[in-house]
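can u do me a favor
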């Protein structure tokens, strides 16, 4: 590897040697597949800064882990791998002291190795630039360390630091007299202490002082490497001290200091503005068509389906992973009466390959949130529709893992709050059936948890042509009544459009009730299937055979196991000489059964038990259970389902 390469070039060369995939990133950098974890799509951002490279992995890989996976030392983050120098100057530009950083010697990319010159001098970094900015009335950005200050200068602003998280009280701050100071705190406990010192030492000498922090990552360099800029920093909330003056390590906000605000609405009482809203439903129920109907109303300011007045016309962003623009989205919007000039489809982010050719790639969340934020503000967007949500999660985000989902949902929630846009997340249902509607959405329950509102779109059990929009949850208002609509063919555009019914439905129609199997509960249907299967299957029935047969019949292993548990059975391999797992009755008794048991036609254990008292308090016949079956004969599912019988029959399964 050439010694004349910059840090960014060295990292790129190492990535290329490992077959990484590349796309053009933001802030003059690039994105690549990360070598420190299994990566399908580029999630590692590499961005140039002053004489060094900034790297940020959206999957959470640390900088040391990424560099180690590339076979590079931490020193290779710098154009000069042996040392990075930070020069502190006097007002006249003469050098006062120099800080030297050598990660190869310390094993820490952030630790200062040594200082030279007047090491006791306590002055601001980039002092001549600070003096000029204060004199010109320009803002000065204050950060904890030199790396962040250098990164900020690349954006054309004046930035400084006292050199560490604890050195504000000991630094000469007089050059900041009357300054406009914008402080960017690190997102950690030392950053909280740094803010506290800055308020105490600067509050009385500067003309204004405000605090921000990174939207993504720990500090401004992370934020910049992830594609952020000064416009999408987020507000900082200072932690409150305990009664004894110590730092509790918690961010506390005294509720008496909070100014109450009313929830603002996109669709009054149903879809809050500045919040996340889920739209769940099976394929072909009309979720996308419904959301396009809502988008059309936003674009024109038309009244809402329940008669609530519309807002001023606003912009709409649509991220659609399933429908074509020309043959589906555009004609559906026209059929819905949209002002299509206010609606934009977000088809790809501005990424290019090595030759400068455009790469057609879906936007990735949370990676592209800074780009979305810029677009939302530029186009006055009031509604963002993401269809389907899970298609836009980054390759490193597992939609079924709560921790991954929370990491993706939090910045999306903050995006909605910062912009005031309502964000609709469309999602398919999972393959379970029945149950609580809150648990039927695909992926982790954390997706629903992050949303302030969630709705189910389902067919009317009594009229399949009719669709019902029923609330699953609404945390910011009273739950509204369900609404009904049908999909009518629009002859002018050859697509479906929504026709709403004028009156809401009864409150008894709930999201969970719409998911029940017609003609009975899902538990009843599963019980019948189990009974039929046990009676019809002559061969030895193991849990594996049950699993295969249940899957073929549309039941999950979890559903079968939960239902069998309700019926009084659990998986066991005890007593089977072939070590096969079978469902056996769950038995509670004070003395062990007599005998070792013998095997029946279906390989199940038969045991003779002492009789127990029945549910009515009487003593049953010692050989016959309340269902009329011998205790030492194989039980049927109906026996356990229809009688309070806890005898240990041998289940043929």
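np, heres the sequence
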């Amino acid at each position: 590897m050439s010694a004349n390469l910059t840090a960014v070039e060295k990292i790129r060369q190492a990535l290329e040697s490992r077959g990484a995939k590349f796309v053009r990133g933001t802030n003059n950098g690039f994105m690549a597949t990360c070598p420190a974890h299994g990566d399908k799509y580029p999630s590692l951002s590499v961005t140039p800064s002053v004489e060094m490279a900034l790297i940020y992995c959206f999957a959470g890989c640390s900088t040391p882990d990424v560099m180690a996976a590339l076979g590079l030392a931490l020193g290779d983050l710098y154009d000069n791998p042996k040392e990075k120098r930070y020069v502190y100057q006097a007002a006249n530009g003469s050098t006062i002291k120099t800080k030297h950083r050598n990660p190869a010697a310390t094993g820490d990319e952030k630790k200062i190795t040594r200082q030279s010159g007047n090491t006791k001098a306590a002055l601001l970094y980039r002092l001549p630039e600070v003096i000029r900015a204060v004199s010109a009335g320009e803002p000065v950005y204050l950060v904890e360390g030199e790396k962040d200050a250098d990164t900020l200068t690349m954006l054309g602003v004046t930035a400084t630091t006292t050199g560490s998280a604890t050195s504000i009280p000991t630094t000469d701050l007089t050059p900041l007299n009357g300054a406009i100071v914008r402080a960017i705190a690190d997102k950690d406990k030392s950053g909280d202490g740094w803010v506290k010192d800055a308020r105490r030492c600067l509050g009385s000498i500067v003309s204004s002082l405000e605090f921000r922090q990174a939207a993504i990552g720990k500090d401004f360099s992370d934020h910049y490497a992830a594609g952020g800029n000064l416009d999408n920093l987020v507000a900082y909330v200072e932690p409150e001290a305990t009664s004894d003056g110590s730092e509790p390590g918690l961010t506390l906000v005294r509720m008496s200091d909070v100014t109450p605000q009313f929830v603002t609405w996109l669709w009054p009482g149903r879809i809050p503005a500045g919040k996340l809203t889920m739209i769940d439903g099976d394929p072909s129920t009309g979720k996308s068509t419904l959301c396009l109907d809502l988008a059309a109303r936003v674009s024109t300011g038309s009244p809402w389906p329940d008669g609530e007045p519309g807002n001023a016309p606003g912009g709409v962003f649509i991220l659609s992973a399933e429908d074509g623009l020309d043959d589906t989205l555009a004609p559906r919007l026209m059929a819905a009466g949209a002002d299509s000039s206010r609606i934009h489809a977000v088809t790809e982010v501005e990424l290019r390959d090595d030759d400068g050719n455009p790469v057609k790639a879906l936007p990735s969340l949370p990676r592209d949130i800074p780009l979305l934020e810029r677009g939302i503000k530029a186009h006055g967007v009031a509604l963002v529709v993401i269809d389907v949500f899970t298609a836009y999660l980054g390759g490193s985000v597992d939609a079924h893992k709560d921790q991954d989902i929370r990491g993706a949902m939090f910045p999306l929630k903050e995006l909605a709050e910062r912009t005031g846009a309502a964000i609709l997340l469309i999602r398919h249902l999972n393959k379970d059936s029945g149950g609580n509607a809150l648990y039927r959405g695909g992926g982790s329950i954390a997706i629903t948890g992050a949303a302030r509102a969630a709705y189910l779109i389902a067919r009317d059990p009594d009229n399949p042509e009719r669709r019902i929009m029923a609330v699953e949850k609404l945390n910011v208002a009273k739950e509204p009544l369900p609404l009904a609509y049908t999909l009518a063919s629009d002859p002018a555009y050859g697509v479906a459009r929504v026709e709403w019914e004028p009156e809401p439905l009864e409150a008894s129609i709930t999201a969970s009730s719409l998911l029940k199997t017609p003609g009975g509960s899902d538990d009843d249907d599963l019980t019948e299937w189990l009974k039929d299967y046990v009676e019809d299957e002559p061969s030895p029935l193991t849990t594996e055979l049950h699993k295969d047969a249940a899957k073929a019949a549309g039941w999950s292993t979890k559903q079968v196991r939960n239902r069998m548990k309700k019926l009084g059975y659990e998986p066991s391999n005890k007593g089977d000489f072939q070590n096969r797992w079978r469902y056996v009755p769950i038995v509670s008794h004070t003395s062990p059964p007599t005998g070792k048991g013998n095997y029946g036609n279906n390989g199940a254990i038969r045991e003779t038990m002492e009789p127990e008292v029945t549910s009515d308090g009487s003593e049953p016949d010692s050989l016959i259970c309340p269902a009329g079956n011998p205790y030492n004969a194989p039980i049927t599912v109906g026996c356990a389902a229809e009688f309070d019988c806890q005898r240990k029959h041998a289940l043929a399964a």
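Residues 247 and 348 are 45 Å apart (CA to CA). hope that helps!!
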